[in-house]
Amino acid sequence: MITIRLIILIVLGLGAIWFGWRVFMTSSMVRSAFSLLANMAILGMMFLVMRAEFLAVLQIMMMATEMSIMAIFMMMYMMDPGGMGDMDMSHQKKTSIALALLAGVAVILIVGFSQWDAIAENVPTTAQQNYDLGMELMKRSMMIFETAGTSILVAMIAAAASALPFKNRKK
Amino acid sequence: MIELISVLIVGAILFGIGLYGALSQTNLVMIMMGVELMLGAGMLNLVALWRYLHPESYSLQVFVLVGMTVMALEAAVGFAIGTQRFRTKGSVEMEETSEMKE
Question: Fewer CB near the last or first residue (10 Å), C or N of chain B?
Answer without folding.
Answer: C
